[in-house]
């Protein structure tokens, strides 16, 4: 697929977007921003106006951010821009031959181009007791609202939170819960926290911070079963070694399943996500897939990627909108991501997985430092804690190919990215 | 409320009334002004809401915090002395008439 030529650009007069999350809403806005004057229908199964998810596990749970603050755009903006919003309805079926989508309500929408932006759904571990009351997941606003209540209730009763999974959603949740004063345990089956996204050094920094804040972090441990009380509410988790952990509220943060069912049922190629080419077209060229649900070939990293980040959703939305408007370019944006836990603001530029050399710059003992990750002589990315300038500079280095800065130079005593950039940036 | 002019790189202008409380970034988003992305939603982390404040500006803008200064080290278009993150510019009556220039690219 990756070798096929740029897509031809027949005129498009109607676009249907399935999934009114970050990627879907950004596609609609980007189409209008480019002057697309045809019909745009944005279909979302959630009732709420499209919203930002990052605060759900941060300020919203903690009570410092309200649901209204999460809206990507006010309702009036969709009307002003002639974007037909269909909320609280689900796309049930695609008919690629007829180029139409049928919704749960029975409505049939025909399209010249279809954009699948169906996101992902959280997984639950298939352990006994996973369906007890008080066992939850966190993905959408409805989950977050229920969890916010449950956290408050658990705190009132002096209960204990168990987070299953040491990924970023679970860790942010544990941090927010500690901030509220709740006792919390994190159980992670792998050898370290956020293992897929972080180098061992940064991962350890994060673990130390959670321990300092009073979270119990159990690595290389598995939940074998959850046990409830007489009323069917979870109270205890049994771990693989037989240990029992108090658990009055359990949240699974064990990853997601990409929303590929609709695509698969329509005969599109799928495999841990909806498979797309470099222009984000599925195996049917009239259908794009973007955001958390899409698996795309990355020339930068030489493999297929499926990313779960606002950056990826938003940049892929713009890429698909450009292609639909007859101005296609392959998707090559530099990936980046952030997470906030306690006072630590961690930003990741690029994808550091697969590095063979890590160089730490800055002040690790003061908690403000970056880990620059290389494979051979090539910069793959960097993880920055409390060092936004490093993060931003690395994003620019990666955009330029990541070949300029060598690990040897970065490891020189006193090396500083701001100073390096000042030296290497051509005068404007 | 403030009238804000967003000047596009192609020479056209978009002039809008933005109610308070909002930011100059949000004013662009709600009016779908192409050229402001704001991926981090206004938390001074992404640098995709970069603007150049008009050189002739005399309206009072808040001073730059360290985090804004840091983020401006890596914007897609070069930083200039009048570079700001538009998410860090609150809309108040005092900035009625503000003119900002949009860069060629944000990411
Ligand atoms: C708690 C939490 C915290 C996060 N924090 C960060 C962070 O700090 N930084 C960061 O970069 N990223 C973060 N993310 C990830 C980021 O929010 C996602 O990567 C992003 O939302 C993906 O956008 P999307 O549009 O692909 O999917 P989503 O935003 O999930 O939107 C998909 C939408 O499609 C709808 N849908 C699915 N199927 C259908 C159907 N058949 N018909 C109609 N509608 C359908 C879904 O209901 C959903 O509303 C976080 C995610 C979560 C859950
Ligand atoms: S919106 Fe991200 S820095 Fe302003």
Automatic annotation (TrEMBL), chain A:
GO terms for cellular component: cytoplasm. GO terms for molecular function: dioxygenase activity; oxidoreductase activity, acting on NAD(P)H. The keyword Flavoprotein applies. Residues 14-317 form the FAD/NAD(P)-binding domain. Residues 336-419 form the Reductase C-terminal domain. Its cofactor is FAD. Keywords: Dioxygenase, FAD, Flavoprotein, Oxidoreductase. The keyword Flavoprotein applies. Residues 407-428 are annotated as: Disordered. This is 3-phenylpropionate/trans-cinnamate dioxygenase ferredoxin reductase subunit. The lineage of its organism: Bacteria, Bacillati, Actinomycetota, Actinomycetes, Kitasatosporales.
Automatic annotation (TrEMBL), chain B:
Its cofactor is [2Fe-2S] cluster. Residues 2-106 form the 2Fe-2S ferredoxin-type domain. One of its GO terms (cellular component) is cytosol. Gene3D superfamilies: 3.10.20.30. Keywords: 2Fe-2S, Iron, Iron-sulfur, Metal-binding. SUPFAM superfamilies: 2Fe-2S ferredoxin-like. One of its GO terms (molecular function) is 2 iron, 2 sulfur cluster binding. Signal peptide: none annotated. Residues 1-20 are annotated as: Disordered. GO terms for biological process: P450-containing electron transport chain. Pfam families: Fer2. Belongs to the adrenodoxin/putidaredoxin family. This is Ferredoxin, 2Fe-2S.
